[in-house]
Design the sequence.
């Protein structure tokens, strides 16, 4: 009898532990803001984190990748599975996910104390479905608490948070806003490259560096529970190129300097991103200088694979993510260096789409591998030519035990969209981001 009671106690304890297994990192549910300040908890990130924690995706639920539909399924598993054809164990997993979220919410519903990471409310609730529905609808706010730095005291609630300067190294300026603490987003950032290049047009081989270095000044939020914010980041970019067998070849191809402002604009619970940045580019090869103003919109759309990686199917070792963008460029050629293409377009404007598709290895032999394809097409609104396309794809393997370095094989075909130089390259080298 004692053995039976002990066994039942162990089972009960195991069940209770399972129900409280949802314990995310603050960066996974509060993607906006600095770790040393109070940040708003994102309902969408909480929703998909607790669902994926239980092996559930939009495909399993039989719905589009829509936060509202997924929240209804989570809060009413029986009703959902009565209306949709749920797969095996889906309803049970939905019940488990709901219980995990309920336990997490009530465990953090109190005045914050030492070591607490979250605050979901003033006190535990007896009507969790009502409260969680209001949270997913954006009517109730929850926050991640400020993390204490080693040389810093907790920021008082009434004071403005301190922002820290941070150097970042990336492939291009449009990803400089992503912090290392945003783990999923940082995993998808393109790396600056150190590489050996074979140029098929020039029939030469070269060594190069291609990337940007920015100084992040910290995000500015409207208030401590708002997801709207902006950040200013000055940056410089350059490509160092040494061409073997050609003593007259330039050692530096392009140098870029600019100031990017990154805006996050919440609309109906989805975070739209807008980048606005002027930059000046000097082409050593053409001896030309070009000043441009750039506007890039990255929409957050409730469809499969948007906003965050999604498994191809339940338990898949590979995830997929899509990133569509719209880009507008207005520019003025300060000096053309004798290049006829630039001379014909002293003032120019271009507009077009950019689409990125990424496959990410998550488990087994695929872990650490990624395959990315980018296609950009800029229609000329003012200036010479009709349009400028560019395609590039990268197969990368991230070295185990770290997230900064990767071996990369990259193919590029099209134009340099700043200087309009023709590019067709196959590159094998190292990629680095920070």
Sequence:
């Amino acid at each position: 009898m004692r053995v039976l009671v002990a066994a039942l106690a162990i089972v009960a304890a195991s069940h209770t532990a399972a129900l409280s297994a949802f314990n995310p990192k603050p960066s996974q549910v509060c993607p906006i803001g600095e770790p040393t300040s109070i940040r708003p908890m994102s309902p969408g990130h909480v929703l998909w984190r607790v669902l994926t924690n239980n092996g559930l995706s939009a495909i399993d639920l039989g719905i589009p990748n829509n936060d509202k539909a997924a929240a209804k399924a989570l809060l009413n598993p029986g009703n959902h599975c009565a209306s949709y054809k749920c797969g095996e164990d889906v309803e049970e997993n939905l019940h488990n996910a709901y219980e995990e979220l309920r336990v997490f919410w009530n465990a953090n519903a109190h005045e914050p104390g030492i070591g607490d990471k979250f605050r979901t409310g003033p006190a535990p609730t007896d009507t969790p479905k009502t409260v969680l529905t209001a949270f997913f609808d954006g009517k109730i706010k929850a926050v991640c608490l400020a993390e204490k730095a080693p040389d810093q005291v907790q920021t008082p609630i009434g004071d403005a948070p301190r922002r820290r300067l941070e150097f970042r190294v990336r492939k291009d300026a449009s990803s400089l806003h992503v912090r290392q603490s945003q783990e999923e987003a940082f995993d998808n950032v393109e790396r600056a490259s150190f590489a050996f290049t074979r140029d098929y047009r020039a029939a030469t081989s070269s060594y190069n560096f291609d990337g940007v270095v920015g100084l992040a000044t910290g995000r500015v939020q409207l208030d401590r529970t708002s997801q709207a914010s902006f950040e200013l980041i000055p940056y410089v970019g350059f490509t160092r190129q040494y061409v073997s067998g050609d003593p007259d070849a330039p050692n530096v191809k392009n140098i870029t300097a600019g100031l990017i402002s990154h805006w996050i604009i919440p609309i109906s619970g989805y975070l739209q991103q807008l980048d606005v940045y002027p930059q000046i580019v000097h082409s050593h090869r053409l001896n030309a200088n070009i000043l441009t103003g750039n506007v890039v919109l990255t929409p957050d759309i409730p469809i499969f694979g948007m906003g965050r990686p999604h498994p191809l199917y339940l338990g898949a070792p590979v995830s997929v993510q899509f990133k569509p963008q719209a880009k507008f460029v207005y520019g003025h050629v300060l000096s053309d260096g004798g290049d006829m293409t630039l001379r014909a377009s002293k003032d120019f404007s271009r507009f077009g789409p950019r689409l990125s598709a990424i496959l990410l290895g998550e488990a087994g032999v695929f872990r650490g591998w990624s395959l990315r394809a980018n296609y950009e097409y800029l229609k000329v609104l003012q200036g010479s030519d009709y349009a400028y396309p560019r395609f590039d794809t990268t197969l990368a393997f991230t070295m185990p035990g770290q997230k900064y370095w990767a071996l990369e094989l990259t193919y590029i075909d099209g134009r340099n969209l700043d200087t309009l130089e023709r590019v067709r390259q196959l590159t094998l080298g190292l990629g680095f981001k920070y």
Observations:
- The first strand starts at residue 39 and ends at 40.
- The chain has two domains: 12-144, 166-432.
- Residues 12-144 form one domain.
